[in-house]
Amino acid sequence: MSRWAELTGGNSGADYASRFASLAASGVDVHGEATLCASLVPPGSRVLDAGCGTGRVAIRLAELGYDCVGVDLDPSMLAEARRAAPAMTWIEADLAALDITPGFDLVLAAGNVVPLLAPGTEAKAVTLLAGAVRPGGLLVAGFGLDAAHLPVPPTAGLAEYDEWCAAAGLVLERRFATWDRAEYRGGGYAVSVHRRPG
Q: What confidence tens digit (pLDDT) does each residue in 119-155 have?
Protein backbone atom coordinates (compact mmCIF):
# COMPACT_ATOMS: atom_id res chain seq x y z
CA MET A 1 0.00 0.00 0.00
CA SER A 2 1.26 3.48 -0.83
CA ARG A 3 2.05 5.88 1.96
CA TRP A 4 -0.55 8.21 0.41
CA ALA A 5 -3.26 5.56 0.78
CA GLU A 6 -2.23 4.94 4.38
CA LEU A 7 -2.53 8.66 5.09
CA THR A 8 -5.83 9.34 3.35
CA GLY A 9 -7.67 6.04 2.99
CA GLY A 10 -8.12 6.81 -0.69
CA ASN A 11 -11.12 9.09 -0.21
CA SER A 12 -9.72 12.61 0.07
CA GLY A 13 -10.28 13.77 -3.51
CA ALA A 14 -13.19 16.12 -2.86
CA ASP A 15 -11.51 17.73 0.14
CA TYR A 16 -8.25 18.15 -1.77
CA ALA A 17 -10.00 19.77 -4.74
CA SER A 18 -11.97 22.06 -2.43
CA ARG A 19 -8.84 23.19 -0.62
CA PHE A 20 -7.09 24.26 -3.83
CA ALA A 21 -10.27 25.91 -5.14
CA SER A 22 -10.41 27.99 -1.95
CA LEU A 23 -6.74 28.95 -2.29
CA ALA A 24 -7.28 30.02 -5.90
CA ALA A 25 -10.39 32.01 -4.96
CA SER A 26 -8.40 33.85 -2.30
CA GLY A 27 -5.85 34.98 -4.90
CA VAL A 28 -3.12 32.43 -4.24
CA ASP A 29 -1.26 31.32 -7.38
CA VAL A 30 -1.86 27.56 -7.44
CA HIS A 31 -0.21 27.04 -10.84
CA GLY A 32 3.50 27.15 -9.98
CA GLU A 33 4.14 23.61 -11.17
CA ALA A 34 2.44 24.23 -14.52
CA THR A 35 4.25 27.53 -14.97
CA LEU A 36 7.63 25.89 -14.45
CA CYS A 37 6.82 23.02 -16.82
CA ALA A 38 5.63 25.50 -19.46
CA SER A 39 8.99 27.27 -19.22
CA LEU A 40 10.82 24.02 -19.93
CA VAL A 41 8.96 22.65 -22.97
CA PRO A 42 6.90 24.46 -25.64
CA PRO A 43 3.11 24.26 -26.08
CA GLY A 44 2.07 21.15 -27.95
CA SER A 45 4.52 19.00 -25.98
CA ARG A 46 3.31 15.71 -24.55
CA VAL A 47 3.22 15.77 -20.75
CA LEU A 48 2.61 12.90 -18.35
CA ASP A 49 1.41 14.12 -14.96
CA ALA A 50 2.38 11.20 -12.71
CA GLY A 51 0.54 11.24 -9.41
CA CYS A 52 -1.79 13.82 -10.95
CA GLY A 53 -4.26 13.82 -8.07
CA THR A 54 -7.28 15.97 -8.94
CA GLY A 55 -5.67 17.02 -12.20
CA ARG A 56 -4.91 20.61 -11.20
CA VAL A 57 -1.54 20.77 -12.99
CA ALA A 58 -2.47 18.73 -16.06
CA ILE A 59 -5.66 20.72 -16.59
CA ARG A 60 -3.77 24.00 -16.40
CA LEU A 61 -1.15 22.75 -18.86
CA ALA A 62 -3.89 21.58 -21.23
CA GLU A 63 -5.38 25.08 -21.06
CA LEU A 64 -1.96 26.39 -22.11
CA GLY A 65 -1.88 24.09 -25.16
CA TYR A 66 -0.10 20.99 -23.89
CA ASP A 67 -1.10 17.40 -24.68
CA CYS A 68 -1.51 15.97 -21.19
CA VAL A 69 -2.19 12.56 -19.66
CA GLY A 70 -2.76 12.16 -15.92
CA VAL A 71 -2.15 9.00 -13.91
CA ASP A 72 -2.90 8.36 -10.24
CA LEU A 73 -3.62 5.44 -7.94
CA ASP A 74 -6.32 7.22 -5.89
CA PRO A 75 -9.78 6.82 -7.47
CA SER A 76 -11.25 9.66 -5.38
CA MET A 77 -8.66 12.06 -6.78
CA LEU A 78 -9.22 10.86 -10.34
CA ALA A 79 -12.98 11.27 -9.90
CA GLU A 80 -12.37 14.98 -9.31
CA ALA A 81 -10.04 15.19 -12.32
CA ARG A 82 -12.61 13.49 -14.56
CA ARG A 83 -15.35 15.78 -13.27
CA ALA A 84 -13.27 18.88 -13.99
CA ALA A 85 -11.95 17.77 -17.39
CA PRO A 86 -13.88 14.79 -18.76
CA ALA A 87 -12.33 15.02 -22.22
CA MET A 88 -8.79 14.53 -20.93
CA THR A 89 -7.09 11.16 -20.45
CA TRP A 90 -6.96 9.99 -16.82
CA ILE A 91 -5.44 6.61 -15.95
CA GLU A 92 -5.79 4.78 -12.65
CA ALA A 93 -2.49 2.99 -12.05
CA ASP A 94 0.29 2.37 -9.56
CA LEU A 95 3.40 4.27 -10.65
CA ALA A 96 5.52 1.30 -9.55
CA ALA A 97 3.69 -0.87 -12.09
CA LEU A 98 3.10 1.77 -14.77
CA ASP A 99 2.64 0.43 -18.29
CA ILE A 100 2.44 3.38 -20.65
CA THR A 101 3.66 4.10 -24.15
CA PRO A 102 6.91 6.11 -23.96
CA GLY A 103 7.65 9.29 -25.84
CA PHE A 104 6.64 12.07 -23.45
CA ASP A 105 8.48 15.36 -23.72
CA LEU A 106 8.07 15.93 -19.99
CA VAL A 107 7.08 13.65 -17.13
CA LEU A 108 6.04 15.45 -13.98
CA ALA A 109 5.93 14.07 -10.42
CA ALA A 110 4.82 16.96 -8.22
CA GLY A 111 3.20 17.16 -4.80
CA ASN A 112 5.43 14.76 -2.87
CA VAL A 113 4.66 11.90 -5.24
CA VAL A 114 7.98 10.09 -4.78
CA PRO A 115 8.02 10.11 -0.94
CA LEU A 116 4.38 8.94 -0.82
CA LEU A 117 4.92 5.80 -2.90
CA ALA A 118 4.81 2.43 -1.20
CA PRO A 119 8.07 1.90 0.70
CA GLY A 120 10.59 -0.03 -1.39
CA THR A 121 8.93 0.82 -4.73
CA GLU A 122 10.48 4.24 -5.25
CA ALA A 123 13.40 3.15 -7.45
CA LYS A 124 11.11 1.01 -9.63
CA ALA A 125 8.65 3.89 -10.06
CA VAL A 126 11.42 6.32 -11.01
CA THR A 127 12.73 3.78 -13.54
CA LEU A 128 9.27 3.47 -15.12
CA LEU A 129 8.71 7.22 -15.16
CA ALA A 130 12.12 7.71 -16.76
CA GLY A 131 11.20 5.10 -19.33
CA ALA A 132 8.27 7.24 -20.43
CA VAL A 133 10.60 10.16 -21.27
CA ARG A 134 11.65 10.51 -24.91
CA PRO A 135 15.30 11.14 -25.80
CA GLY A 136 15.95 14.78 -25.01
CA GLY A 137 12.93 14.92 -22.72
CA LEU A 138 12.66 15.76 -19.03
CA LEU A 139 11.62 14.23 -15.73
CA VAL A 140 10.63 16.95 -13.26
CA ALA A 141 9.99 16.02 -9.64
CA GLY A 142 9.36 18.19 -6.61
CA PHE A 143 9.18 16.76 -3.13
CA GLY A 144 9.95 17.39 0.51
CA LEU A 145 13.05 16.13 2.20
CA ASP A 146 12.28 16.64 5.88
CA ALA A 147 9.48 16.59 8.43
CA ALA A 148 8.59 20.22 7.79
CA HIS A 149 7.82 19.49 4.13
CA LEU A 150 6.40 15.97 4.31
CA PRO A 151 3.37 14.42 6.01
CA VAL A 152 5.38 11.23 6.59
CA PRO A 153 8.96 10.56 7.73
CA PRO A 154 11.36 10.76 4.76
CA THR A 155 12.76 7.47 3.50
CA ALA A 156 15.11 8.80 0.83
CA GLY A 157 16.92 12.00 -0.04
CA LEU A 158 18.25 13.70 -3.13
CA ALA A 159 21.33 11.47 -3.33
CA GLU A 160 19.14 8.36 -3.60
CA TYR A 161 16.78 10.04 -6.05
CA ASP A 162 19.67 11.12 -8.27
CA GLU A 163 21.04 7.56 -8.17
CA TRP A 164 17.70 6.15 -9.30
CA CYS A 165 17.54 8.69 -12.13
CA ALA A 166 21.12 7.99 -13.21
CA ALA A 167 20.47 4.24 -13.22
CA ALA A 168 17.50 4.93 -15.52
CA GLY A 169 19.67 6.91 -17.93
CA LEU A 170 18.82 10.45 -16.84
CA VAL A 171 21.20 13.33 -16.11
CA LEU A 172 20.56 16.07 -13.55
CA GLU A 173 20.16 19.38 -15.39
CA ARG A 174 18.81 21.85 -12.80
CA ARG A 175 17.64 21.88 -9.21
CA PHE A 176 15.39 24.51 -7.67
CA ALA A 177 14.22 25.15 -4.12
CA THR A 178 10.70 26.07 -5.25
CA TRP A 179 8.45 25.83 -8.30
CA ASP A 180 9.15 29.50 -9.02
CA ARG A 181 12.80 28.66 -9.74
CA ALA A 182 14.47 29.88 -6.57
CA GLU A 183 18.00 28.48 -6.49
CA TYR A 184 18.42 25.34 -4.42
CA ARG A 185 21.05 25.79 -1.71
CA GLY A 186 20.03 22.98 0.57
CA GLY A 187 16.86 22.87 2.60
CA GLY A 188 13.76 20.79 2.99
CA TYR A 189 12.23 20.97 -0.49
CA ALA A 190 13.70 20.51 -3.95
CA VAL A 191 12.49 20.52 -7.54
CA SER A 192 14.78 18.37 -9.68
CA VAL A 193 14.98 18.52 -13.47
CA HIS A 194 16.60 15.48 -15.08
CA ARG A 195 17.03 15.01 -18.83
CA ARG A 196 17.31 11.92 -20.99
CA PRO A 197 20.26 12.57 -23.34
CA GLY A 198 19.65 12.29 -27.04
A: 999 999 999 999 999 999 999 999 999 999 998 888 8
3-class secondary structure, 152: coil
Nearest to 179 by CA among 86, 116, 111, 96: 111
Q: How many CA atoms lie within 13 A of 39 on its CB side?
A: 12
Write out pLDDT tens, residues 154-194.
888 999 999 999 999 999 999 999 999 999 999 999 999 99
**Could you tell me which of 30, 23, 32, 24 has the C-alpha nearest to residue 180?**
32
Domain ranges for the chain, please list them: 3-195
According to CATH, the superfamily of the domain at 3-195 is Vaccinia Virus protein VP39 (3.40.50.150)
| Whole-structure pTM value | 0.91
